[in-house]
Specification:
This protein has a domain of 72 residues. It has three helices and ten strands, in the order H-H-E-E-E-E-E-E-E-E-E-H-E. The two termini are 47 Å apart.
Length: 208
């Protein structure tokens, strides 16, 4: 958990409760006028909007619970960084060299290399610092791109808290979560623990 996500959820919950209060007030107004709120298209839309926002609150709350065994210091660091990858073109030999100098291993499943939009596999195994690959770009035209897409993971700057076994007094306890019934929950909007980043080189812009 971190303070940024907690503050975001606090504001989100306040807005959602304000929506619920407004919905009740609208229903009261319509009912006092002698009409049925259930026949109002405006009320129906507000019910749908409220349900959507409640779904987001539940998704975020479940994710917050899943992270409740760690306290985050709100420092956002991700690895590897863009600077850990270099893509250098040798226009004389029509080659591009992709080099990686990071300290973190990059799994092949989290690395995608494309040449002029087509995926290629210049590396045969997970990538460690100091490794490089040479790509033939003789068939490409000026302006084509060689791109390296990789996954960055949040550097763990958290403080561990008690396990759910200890908190709940159970063996093999799992993080609690809120059931959503027939409502399909969206993706959570809390701080992302990973993200996809791309570095690229445009053919014809470098001379080595």
């Amino acid at each position: 958990m971190n303070k940024t996500d907690i503050e975001r959820m606090r504001a989100q919950l306040r807005r959602t409760l304000d929506e619920a209060e407004e919905l009740v007030e609208d229903a009261d107004t319509i009912g006092e006028a002698g009409f049925s709120p259930s026949n109002s298209t405006n009320v129906l839309q507000k019910q749908r909007d409220l349900t959507e926002d409640v779904g987001q609150v539940l998704a975020d709350f479940n994710e917050l619970l899943a992270r409740a065994n760690k306290a985050d210091n709100d420092t956002r660091e991700y690895a590897p960084t863009r600077d850990n990858f270099s893509i250098v073109e040798d226009t004389t030999n029509n080659e591009i060299t992709i080099s990686y100098n990071g300290s973190e291993k990059v799994p092949l499943t989290e690395l995608t290399v494309t040449k002029a939009g087509s995926e290629i596999t210049p590396f045969s195994s997970d990538l460690n610092g100091g490794e490089s690959a040479i790509i033939d770009v003789s068939g490409l035209s000026d302006g084509d791109l060689v791109e390296v897409e990789f996954t960055q993971h949040n550097v763990d700057n958290t403080y561990p808290l008690r396990s759910w076994d200890e908190v709940l007094g159970q063996t093999d306890a799992v993080a609690p979560s809120v059931s959503s019934g027939s409502l399909t929950l969206p993706d959570h909007q809390l701080t992302k623990m990973s993200r996809t980043v791309t570095v690229s080189e445009t053919i014809g812009t470098t001379q080595v």
